[in-house]
Structure formats: structure tokens, C-alpha cells
Write a structure and sequence with these properties.
alpha+beta, 7 strands, 2,3-Dihydroxybiphenyl 1,2-Dioxygenase, domain 1, Glyoxalase-like_dom, Glyoxalase-like domain-containing protein, 4-stranded mixed sheet, 3-stranded antiparallel sheet, Glyas_Bleomycin-R_OHBP_Dase
């Protein structure tokens, strides 16, 4: 989910899901910050917003968060801005993809690190309907350490 601010997005999720989504952290490479909550085994919901305290990133922010149309939509109401599919081999997933999901970029937030496909434009193909691919390091899925204050999904 993307929102004009974490406060606005958290209030929206509280109203519509009955969940108090906890703060996550900052993505310094993207100039964003987030709130995250587990919604199932190996699944989490992330609320993203531009971090007003962050320096502008060297590249366009992910999920089209710099696109004026996306900014206008997130200002009207928090909304889905994209989705991410986990893979154990991001290079193979990228090669076999019928649409270019963007180059593989190494990212981190605090002690967490991951690889993710990010188009150079920052915009996911098909206006966010096409997923980004993510590869987490070996070990427990990050959602295992997240709280689950709201509804759950199953596979």
C-alpha cells in the first residue's frame, strides 16, 4: 500500500482492517519509510510513504512513488501501489519473465537485506499490476518477526 504519509495510511488500515500496523523503518536508498504487519505464513502487508526527513534518492522511488499521477492517487486515498513475489532464484525469475521487471538491485533496511527487481523508471510494468521479484537471504522469512494485528491470508 502507498499513502501520502504513514499516519494517513495507518489510519486507513485501522478503519478498514481494524489493524494497528506497526512502524517498520526507513529505506534510505529510496527515501521511503514503512509500516509492516504479518498477514500469513511468509506473507506481509507493507505500507509505504515518502519519508519527508529523507534526502531525495539518486534514482526514481520504487512503485512509481515519484510519478505525479501516483502521488495524486495516494493523496486522495491510500492505495495498492504494487506487489512483490518471492523467489529463491531472482536471476532465473528475471530471465524467464515475459516482461522486463527491471534490473536486480540490492537493498537493505536496518539489519535486513534483499535483492529486488526495480525498473529504472521506478514504475512497475502495467501500472503496478505486474509484480516485482524479491529474493531474501537464507533463514527465517522476515514476516516471522512481525506482529500480526489484523486479518490473515492463507495460500
Amino acid at each position: 500500500m502507498g499513502a501520502s504519509s504513514l499516519e494517513t495510511g495507518a489510519a486507513y488500515l485501522r478503519e478498514h482492517l481494524g489493524a494497528n500496523i506497526p512502524r517498520g523503518g526507513k529505506h534510505s536508498d529510496m527515501g521511503t519509510h514503512n509500516c509492516v504487519m504479518r498477514v500469513g505464513t511468509g506473507l506481509f502487508l507493507e505500507l509505504l510513504s515518502v519519508d519527508p526527513e529523507a534526502a531525495p534518492p539518486a534514482r526514481p522511488r520504487w512503485f512509481g512513488m515519484d510519478d505525479p499521477r501516483q502521488v495524486a492517487r495516494m493523496t486522495m486515498q491510500p492505495r495498492p501501489v504494487g506487489w512483490v513475489v518471492q523467489t529463491e532464484d531472482i536471476e532465473q525469475a528475471r530471465r524467464s519473465c515475459p516482461v522486463d521487471p527491471g534490473p536486480i538491485v540490492s537493498m537493505s533496511r536496518g539489519s535486513r537485506s534483499w535483492l529486488i527487481t526495480l525498473p529504472d523508471s521506478g514504475k512497475s510494468p502495467f501500472d503496478g499490476l505486474f509484480p516485482a521479484f524479491i529474493q531474501w537471504p537464507e533463514g527465517p522469512h522476515p514476516s516471522a518477526a512481525m506482529s500480526a494485528p489484523g486479518p490473515a491470508l492463507s495460500r
